[in-house]
UniProtKB/TrEMBL annotation:
It comes from Propioniciclava tarda. Residues 1-128 form the BFN domain. It comes from the Bacteria. PANTHER family: VON HIPPEL-LINDAU DISEASE TUMOR SUPPRESSOR, VON HIPPEL-LINDAU PROTEIN. GO terms for molecular function: nuclease activity. This is Bifunctional nuclease family protein.
Length: 164
């Protein structure tokens, strides 16, 4: 497993959906995961102070787990197929499957480490140099990589929506 760091949730006029970017801790590769606007908001809200007046569903889940002595220990992104990333949360030694975006939203709230399977990073991970060079990618990820290339080629700082 390869440890990941949160990179960003990018929202631009050029992309149909927000893009969650996770970066390899000890490397140059990144994972680009297309997510819904609601998932993007849930992830970004994890980086802001918790709202006591109006906690999100993710905040509620973390609080409910904590009230029972449960701890989210880690997030593992285990596989990817057809642009869909599958993940598992480790909670008190037990495994719970989840969407990658929900897992990231929860891991960020708890400070839990995030990991990706070596084979997923090998298949779907990209570097800036590879994107710039236009390297060939396996057919299973060609569409996602092409979308990511187009996104990076057309994005500029003015395109970003501040924490929406």
């Amino acid at each position: 497993m390869i440890q990941l760091l949160f990179g960003d949730v990018r929202v631009t006029d050029h992309a149909v959906s927000p893009v969650l970017v996770l970066k390899e801790l000890d490397g140059e590769r990144q994972l680009a995961i297309w997510i819904s606007a609601a998932a993007g908001a849930a992830i970004l809200s994890a980086l802001e102070p918790e709202s006591v007046d109006y906690p999100s569903t993710h905040d509620l889940l973390v609080e409910a787990l904590a009230s029972q002595g449960a701890l989210i220990e880690r997030l593992n992104i285990t596989s990817a197929a057809d642009g869909i990333f599958h993940a598992e949360l480790s909670i008190n030694g037990m495994t719970v499957t989840c969407r990658a975006s929900d897992g990231v939203a929860l891991a960020l709230r708890c400070g839990a480490p995030m990991f990706v399977a070596d084979e997923v990073m090998a298949d779907a991970g990209v570097t800036q140099a590879q994107l710039a060079a236009g390297d060939e990618w396996p057919e299973s990820t060609a569409d996602e990589v092409e979308q990511f290339r187009a996104f990076l080629a057309n994005v500029n700082a003015d395109d970003f929506d501040e924490r929406s």
